[in-house]
Amino acid sequence: MSTKKITCLAVDDEPPALSIIQKYIEAVPSLELAATCSNAVEAWQILQSKTIDLIFLDIQMPQLLGTDFIRTLKNPPKIIFTTAFRKYAVEGFDLDAVDYLLKPISFERFLKAVNKVMNTTLSAQSASLHIEKENLHDSFIHFRADRKTLKIPLDDILFIESLKDYIKVVTKVKPIITKQSISSLEENLPNDFIRIHRSFIVSTNKIESYTNDIIQIGKYELPISRSYRHEVEKILGQK
Asked: What is the pTM of this model?
């Protein structure tokens, strides 16, 4: 028996962010993208003409906030809010949102949100996500640095280092420093990345060699702390 696809609408006034959501939706066989738009007025018009099961909705938009837009709908579809501002989280959940995605949004975090929708709307059909491994390698993440938003392919990242309130993302090309905690970033990274130390997350695909205490990635030697050693050995022993 074939599983009915979840029909999606993506709403965001920032074209790069909208492009990310569109790419992620297209990577998931159980989702179908009905339309994209840049504001609440366009979204309302689409809802009048199409049956939408799920909206990926940015909150901070011109004319009308995403949260205020939802309040205007009598029977809104399932909602996953997307925003760069953590302060909207409580309000989002008060509106019965399925999930709240904080930008930059990783593919793995996107899947976790979609799985919540699958579990609540398609459990009777035992729906599940079957994501091809290469989709993860094609995904990317955004960072704010030098007053710009940088689009960084996950496959370019060697490791991440914590610098108190900042992180240094070391890539194949150059390091990027941005204001973010390493723990919040860790939540949005796929399983190819592992925490080896309070201050370091590494890409397992870039590891050239390792001992009980050190991981070698190119010219970098990174320490494995005692508290993470068992988990690191367990994960690397399976690769």
From this structure: 0.52
CB contact at 8 A, 54 and 80: yes
Residue 57 tokens read as: 């909705």
pLDDT tens-digit profile of 133-178?
A: 344 444 788 888 877 788 888 889 999 999 988 999 999 989 999 9
Residue among 54, 61, 51, 68 at smallest CA distance from 12: 61
Q: Looking up tokens 């696809």, which residue turns up?
A: 5
Q: State the angle between helix axes of 107-121 and 15-27 in degrees (0 to 180), rounded to the nearest 10.
A: 60
3 state DSSP class of 221: strand
Asked if 48 and 23 count as a contact pair (C-beta separation under 8 A), the reply is no
Spatial neighbors of 111 by CB under 8 A, at least 6 apart, are 28, 129, 131
Cα distances (angstroms) measured from residue 16 to each of 55, 69, 86, 105: 17, 22, 19, 12
For every residue of 8-24, DSSP letters joined together read EEEE-SSHHHHHHHHHH
Position 124 pLDDT exceeds 80: no
- Do 111 and 129 form a contact (C-beta atoms < 8 A)? yes
Which of 40, 43, 53 lies closest to 6 in space, CA to CA? 53
For 73-84, what is each residue's pLDDT tens digit? 888 899 999 988
Biggest distance spanned by C-alpha atoms of the chain: 60
